[in-house]
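Would you mind writing out a protein's amino acid sequence and the numbers that encode its backbone to help me picture the idea?
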Amino acid sequence: MKFLFLLSILVLIFFNTTSEAKMSKMSKDELKKKLTPEQYHVTQEEGTERAFHNKYWDNHEAGIYVDVVSGEPLFSSKDKYDSGTGWPSFSRPIKKESLINKKDNKLLGGERTEVRSSSGDSHLGHVFDDGPGPDKKRFCINSAALKFIPVTDLKKEGLEEYLDDFTEKALLSAGCFWGVQDLFRKLPGVVASEVGYSGGQDNTPTYEEVKTGKTNHAEAVFIRFDPSKITYEQILDYFFKLHDPTTVNQQGNDVGTQYRSNIFYYNETQRLVAQKVFEKVDISKKWKKPIVTQITAAKTFFSAEEYHQDYLVKHPNGYTCHFLRN
């Protein structure tokens, strides 16, 4: 009896899941409204676009390729390579379970392996055994079956989990975080930035609490940068140019521990780089007084309230005490 009960539960789960999947699948009319004629032909009618005359065959930008129908992440630009075929080619998918392989005997001259997306059931292209890497796979995919999400848009598109694959991070405080974020936002190689609080004891900091100085949190800026375009050392060189690192717990009219100059390092490599740049700036005597910037291990970063994020973009004439010094 117990076995039959469990079996009935499993059957119900199966049929419920199947029903939900069928209900979630878009109708032909819905797909025709959502997709271009070429996208529909490729993904729903197993069509093939022209080689060398498609959107992504020569795209070298960093990011993620998702199913144009379902939005499911399929391939990474880190696994894309020039196969010489004129179609986007990848050595592997992001996750094996995101793809379904099927036998394809439509082409005269032999059997091929069709590749479809798991969630959207979109026809993507084919996979061959002549690729690079240990698996020797070449996923030959139609651009029309894909949507490309550049690194700068990953968070906005709900794909933040993939940012670590393309970027490194830095955590810095140099006074009021509005001005610091605004200057870093304009620095080539910086992919994303966010203002918040770090370095203190409170696990639920708010602006009203931090501004009292009692939490010991600093107004900090969390930065993601592309290491192929800018190094951590260059990030810190810029950091020492945009604020006065010789004033203890103060930037301009802003006074308090929350406005301290602080480099929060994430690993030993960053600590050594921070110490190197600190000494370089101090010895240079570009600042008449000694550098007082703290170099401490990164603690939890707490994102600040939404109205603080990109404040000077929202309020171009807003308050800032930051500037760039040569």
